[in-house]
Amino acid sequence: MPPHHVPLAFVFRSRAKDEKAAVADKAPLTNSKQTRDPQAPKGRPTPKRSEAQSVRRSVATTTTSRKEASKRQRDERRAQLERQRQALATGDERYLPARDKGPVRKFARQFIDSRFNVAEFFLPMAVVILVLSMVRVGSLQSIALLLWLVVIVLIVLDSIASGFRLKKKLAERFPDENRRGAVAYALMRSLQMRRLRLPKPQVKRGERP
Which of 85, 110, 158, 208 is disulfide-compatible with 118, CB 3.0–4.6 A? Predict the structure, then answer.
């Protein structure tokens, strides 16, 4: 018997079906039920409404918290400056600036405030001397120059004497305290007129500190 003959058309049809099935198997599976928001970025699922609202609330809360913290800091600084201003007028040690705090600085202030200091009259004397020097009279201009020299010498001598006395008293009264800068602090205070000094004087002239 002759061998069984298979038609060529049947062979080609079977091969074409096999290739289509292989291509279908390799194709990625997609979920037709999943929909994407046209405004959502490609490759990302659309966020749920509750999640979006939560993010917006979080951003709003963070912004509000920062504003409140900034306002609170400004209020605290303003209150601190007000307390310092009142302390400079009343001498309240709790709220004085750091340069004025402590028993050593307080004693130095009282030492200067309890006595007359030549340096505190420098400003009014300088005005008088300046007026005399502007007058076009030779004798008055000579007197003004002499007064300048006298005032400067008196201020230097008085400051040196006050510095030595204050340094000695501080060593006797505060042997274990930090006294650094206290004498210079007191001498700078002596250059100011009594009514303009801050903190305000707490002792009268002639009163022992």
Answer: 158
Q: Is 15 exposed, middle or buried (0-12, 13-18, 19+ CB in 10 A)?
A: exposed
CB 91 within 8 A of CB 109: no
Nearest to 179 by CA among 113, 97, 84, 106: 106
Q: Which long-range contacts (CB under 8 A, 24 or more apart) does 85-89 make?
A: 87/199, 88/198, 88/199, 88/200, 89/198, 89/199, 89/200
Q: Domain residues of the chain, as ranges?
A: 51-96, 100-196
Q: Which of 7, 6, 197, 177 is nearest to 111 (CA)?
A: 197
> Which candidate, 100, 113, 88, places its Cα nearest to that of 194?
113
Burial class (CB in 10 A: 0-12, 13-18, 19+), 119: buried
The model's pTM is 0.64
Distances (CA, A) of 56 to 40, 50, 67, 87, 146: 17, 10, 17, 47, 79
Helix pair angle (138-173, 122-134), 10° resolution: 170
Under a CB-based contact definition with an 8 Å cutoff, are residues 187 and 84 in contact? no
